[in-house]
Every structure is written in C-alpha cells, then in structure tokens.
C-alpha cells in the first residue's frame, strides 16, 4: 500500500474492447499493428468532425468534461476571426499518483491518440501538433510513434509535431501550465485565466484535450456514430477508461462501457466486499459512502447525481479498518505540497486546510472543524488554476462522506482506527517514473545523482536553500551560488523534495553516469509502416 502505480499496470476490459483493441496481441501497437487492428482512417471536414463529436456527446476525459464539439467549433471560429492557424495539443500529463489510463494508452496505443489529433489538425488546417507528457516511458513511446509516421518538428514540414515533456507535478497537467511550457516558460499556471480556444500556444487559438479524448474521437470516426452509440448509455455512449487502485488486490486500468455498476468494477479489482468509502475522480474528486457505492454506475452524470465525480477516471476504495480522515489528511498534505506557490488561496489556503484536518484528528473539536470548512470555502474560485478548487472539493467531500468518523474525532476520542495509507502517493524519497532521467540508483556506494539549476527559470525564491542547505546557499543577489552539484546519498530524499517544491520548476535531478558502462536501453527500432495516404496510414 501507499506505493505509486507503475506506468503500465494490469489492463482489463469489460465487454468488447475499443480503445484497448489489440492489447491481447502485443504490448505496444506500432504503426503496422495499429493499422492491422484498427484499419486506416479517412480525414473528415471540420463541420463533419464537430457533428460527429456532438452526435456521440463526446466530452473531455481529463476531468473537466467540456463538450469536445463545442470546443472544436470555438477554436475554429477564433482562428477564422483572427486569421491565424490553430494549434492542436494532446495533454498526456497524467500527474496524479492514482491515475494511469492516459499513460497506458500512450504507452500501448499511441497511434490511436495520434489518429484523433491528426483528424483535428487536418480538419482545422493546423500546422503544429504538440503532445505533452511527464514520464520517460510516455515520451519515448510517443516520439517513436511520431517517427513511425514520418512526423517531425523540422521547419518546412506540413505539420510540425513534437513531444513536450514536463516535470511530474499536479499543476503541470493544467492546460495553462502545458501551454506555458510549450511557449518556453515554466510548467505552472500563468497567474491569470486565459481561454486556450482564444489565445493558447504562441497566442494562437489552441484545441487542447487529453489523450483518451482524442483516442475516443478516432474510434468514433472509424466506426461511425450509430455503431459507437451501440455501446454504453444513450446519453453517454461508448466506453470509459478507469484506473482502480487503493484497497484492491489487483490495481488496474480497465475499459468499461458506461452504465456498468461501480461495484462490479471494484469486484474485478479485488476491492473489499463492503468498502468504507470509495474516492471517485481522483484527488480532485469526491468520496462516496458505502451505501451509495452500491447504487452508483459508471457515468459522468450518474456519479454526479449520487454525489461522486468521474473526473480523471480514478477509483479508490478504502477498507473498514483504516481511518478515513487520516487517509484524506495524507492526500490533503500532498495536494498542499503540489501548489505552484503563485497565489494566496493555493499557497496559503491548502496548507491551512491540511493543518485543520490534522487539528481535527488531534482533538481540536468543533472549532477545528469549523476552521476547515471556512478555509475550504475561502479558496474556491479564487486561484490562478483549478488546483485549489479541486483540492477544496476533495476536503469538503471528506467531511460530508464520513460523518460518523468525523463525529468520533470532533466530539469524542477519535475512531480508534490506524491510518493504513491505502491511497497511493509520491512520498519523499520515492521517485515517480520520469523525474530521473537515468537508470535506478545503486543500493550501495557513492551517490550518482546531480542536481541542476536552470537559470532561464530560476526566479530567486530561495526555497532550495531552505530545503537543501547541504547543497545550496544563496549569494548576495538571492540566487543559488552553484549551477550544479552532486547530491550526497544522505540527502537524496531532500533533494527530490526540493525539485518538486521549487515554485519555478527550475531544479532537476539527473544521473551522473561517468565511469559507468550501464545505460538505459533505447526503444527497439520499430518498422516503418506504409499504406494508404489516410490519416492512420503513416507517411
């Protein structure tokens, strides 16, 4: 328990596979295998593509659930009005410890995602495509897929396509953070809310959606809206990718038709027969109590109707034996640590909310409970991005779902249950895939890690010297006195914390491979598929 999921956990499917077609044949569908499984894909005009998205009621699968057809029309109208070619961005920045569905798709079916992105680019006349990722595995898989199709970022190319890799942090997955990083800035929100549809990458209208959304669009374009609607609910047709972890015996990513009972999904993953509660939608989501879980079905509207959230598709049950407030406190503290540190509601409010939850657990009584409620209320709709809103929603949901446990802590001596730590988190010293660029750290011997300062990003906040005084000290100008330094083994965990906490994302850790003959193997050279000159056929 309390371990981050691997990049590609077990993958299951209920019913006939759509997004996961071919997963039973190979680990990764290269272009020839992708075409063998899915077939070629003919381009669609802009109006036809928007109508298709509207016919199947396609909504973004990254959490917000914005109607894709409406977004496509908005970007097209803005591009025409400004006389600027739009940009297409695939957001594969899956940075929650409990989410892996997009990571699985990028690693195992990258061409299905590219199919959807290329459909949009062709229909809108875009000349730039960017795929945002945060993990080494997803970067390598998507770069290999672009190479297989003969796509590159070379000047003069009809469509310039590239992968943008950012650090693993909760805020880097925000649309504004990804766009800012593509433009050469840090992967944090810009401090003001701007619609990407109006002014995104380079100021151009930008259609940005998450990886699963583009893959769903590609499926619908191939099989048509009528056949697509034969699966799932009438109002929300098709399938959904879910990541199920927490108190389960088999953490997995699972593709299910909408309308499947949530309890059946939990049963497949080996969840307790009677969980104390289930967190739906991830760490910006909502808790369902045990009674409500039995009524819930997998659907955005249906989960919302019973007080849950589909969100980013993460489902996390907890056992009856753990303290739910303690579990939520761990997540609240992590969410506070993930702040970009740019606005008061996030930088000050989220740590205050976490401290309030801790006060409740430590016997703070009704005053502590009221303080948490006030802080959660005060941070909503006041931040520079959605992080404080999602975090506040999670905290408020905790207070609402576990009333008996809350009463035991507020009015009595506590619930008497330990905190088992069943919800996965990136803890200090636990390196999530993608933060380090080299092979794993040796168990013995001297450290092979070095920490670097990116002067183009550093703004002199000075937090690195506070968190890692063994390595950094500040000069008279308030900036670090070194640009790079070896990391002693005794402070590796502190160095990782400094990297993750830097408000400007100006620190990175790399492996010092000098004197070592070992290196991470490259992806094997994949065959170059040639076929019909359709969107799914490569060059």
TrEMBL record:
<dbReference type="GO" id="GO:0051539">
    <property type="term" value="F:4 iron, 4 sulfur cluster binding"/>
</dbReference>
<keyword id="KW-0408">Iron</keyword>
<dbReference type="GO" id="GO:0045333">
    <property type="term" value="P:cellular respiration"/>
</dbReference>
<dbReference type="InterPro" id="IPR050837">
    <property type="entry name" value="ComplexI_51kDa_subunit"/>
</dbReference>
<dbReference type="InterPro" id="IPR011538">
    <property type="entry name" value="Nuo51_FMN-bd"/>
</dbReference>
<dbReference type="InterPro" id="IPR019554">
    <property type="entry name" value="Soluble_ligand-bd"/>
</dbReference>
<dbReference type="GO" id="GO:0046872">
    <property type="term" value="F:metal ion binding"/>
</dbReference>
<dbReference type="InterPro" id="IPR037225">
    <property type="entry name" value="Nuo51_FMN-bd_sf"/>
</dbReference>
<dbReference type="Pfam" id="PF13459">
    <property type="entry name" value="Fer4_15"/>
</dbReference>
<dbReference type="InterPro" id="IPR019575">
    <property type="entry name" value="Nuop51_4Fe4S-bd"/>
</dbReference>
<comment type="similarity">
    <text>Belongs to the complex I 51 kDa subunit family.</text>
</comment>
<dbReference type="Pfam" id="PF10589">
    <property type="entry name" value="NADH_4Fe-4S"/>
</dbReference>
<protein>
    <submittedName>
        <fullName>Oxidoreductase</fullName>
    </submittedName>
</protein>
<keyword id="KW-0285">Flavoprotein</keyword>
<keyword id="KW-0479">Metal-binding</keyword>
<dbReference type="InterPro" id="IPR037207">
    <property type="entry name" value="Nuop51_4Fe4S-bd_sf"/>
</dbReference>
<keyword id="KW-0411">Iron-sulfur</keyword>
<dbReference type="GO" id="GO:0003954">
    <property type="term" value="F:NADH dehydrogenase activity"/>
</dbReference>
<keyword id="KW-0004">4Fe-4S</keyword>
<dbReference type="Pfam" id="PF10531">
    <property type="entry name" value="SLBB"/>
</dbReference>
<dbReference type="Pfam" id="PF01512">
    <property type="entry name" value="Complex1_51K"/>
</dbReference>
<keyword id="KW-0288">FMN</keyword>
<feature type="domain" description="NADH-ubiquinone oxidoreductase 51kDa subunit iron-sulphur binding">
    <location>
        <begin position="325"/>
        <end position="369"/>
    </location>
</feature>
<feature type="region of interest" description="Disordered">
    <location>
        <begin position="511"/>
        <end position="539"/>
    </location>
</feature>
């Amino acid at each position: 328990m309390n371990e981050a999921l691997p990049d590609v956990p077990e993958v299951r499917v209920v019913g006939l596979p759509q997004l996961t077609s071919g997963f039973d044949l190979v680990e990764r569908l290269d272009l020839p295998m992708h075409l063998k499984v899915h077939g070629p894909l003919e381009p669609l005009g802009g109006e036809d593509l928007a109508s298709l998205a509207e016919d199947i009621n396609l909504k973004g699968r990254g959490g917000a659930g914005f109607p894709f057809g409406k977004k496509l029309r908005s970007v097209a109208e803005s591009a025409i009005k400004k006389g600027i070619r739009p940009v297409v961005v695939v957001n594969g920045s899956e940075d929650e410890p409990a989410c892996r569905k997009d990571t699985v798709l990028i690693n195992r079916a990258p061409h299905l995602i590219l199919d959807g992105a290329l459909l949009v680019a062709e229909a809108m006349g875009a000349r730039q495509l960017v795929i945002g990722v945060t993990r080494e595995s997803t970067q390598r898989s998507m770069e290999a897929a672009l190479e297989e199709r003969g796509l590159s970022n070379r000047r003069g190319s009809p469509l310039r396509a590239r992968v943008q890799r950012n650090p693993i942090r909760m805020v880097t997955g925000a649309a504004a953070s990804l766009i800012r990083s593509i433009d050469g800035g840090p992967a944090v929100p810009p401090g003001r809310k701007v619609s990407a549809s109006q002014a995104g990458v380079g100021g151009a209208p930008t259609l940005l959606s998450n990886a699963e959304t583009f893959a769903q669009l590609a499926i619908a374009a191939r099989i048509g809206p009528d056949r697509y609607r034969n699966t799932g609910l009438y109002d929300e047709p098709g399938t959904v990718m879910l990541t199920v972890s927490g108190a389960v015996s088999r953490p997995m990513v699972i593709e299910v038709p909408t309308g499947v009972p949530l309890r059946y999904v939990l049963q497949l993953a080996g969840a307790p027969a009677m969980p104390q509660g289930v967190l739906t939608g991830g760490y910006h989501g909502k808790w369902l109590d045990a009674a409500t879980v039995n009524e819930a079905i997998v659907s955005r509207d249906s989960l919302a109707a019973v007080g849950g959230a589909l969100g980013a598709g993460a489902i996390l049950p907890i056992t009856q034996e753990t303290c739910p407030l303690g579990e939520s406190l761990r997540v609240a503290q992590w969410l506070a640590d993930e702040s970009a540190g740019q606005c008061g509601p996030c930088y000050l409010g989220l740590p205050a909310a976490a401290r309030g939850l801790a006060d409740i657990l430590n016997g703070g009584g009704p005053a502590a409970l009221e303080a948490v409620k006030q802080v959660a209320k005060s941070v909503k709709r006041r931040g520079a991005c959605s992080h404080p809103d999602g975090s506040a929603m999670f905290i408020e949901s905790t207070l609402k779902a576990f009333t008996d446990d809350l009463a035991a802590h507020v009015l009595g001596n506590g619930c008497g249950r330990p905190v088992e730590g069943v919800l996965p988190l990136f803890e200090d010293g636990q390196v999530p895939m993608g933060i380090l660029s080299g092979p794993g750290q040796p168990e013995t011997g001297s450290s092979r890690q070095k920490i670097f300062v990116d002067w183009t990003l550093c703004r002199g906040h000075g937090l690195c010297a506070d968190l890692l005084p063994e390595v950094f000290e500040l000069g008279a100008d308030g900036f670090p006195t070194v640009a790079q330094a070896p990391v002693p083994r005794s402070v590796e965990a502190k160095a990782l914390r400094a990297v993750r906490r830097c408000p400007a994302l100006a620190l990175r850790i790399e492996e010092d491979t000098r004197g070592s003959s070992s290196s991470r193997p490259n992806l094997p050279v994949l065959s170059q598929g040639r076929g019909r000159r359709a969107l799914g056929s490569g060059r």
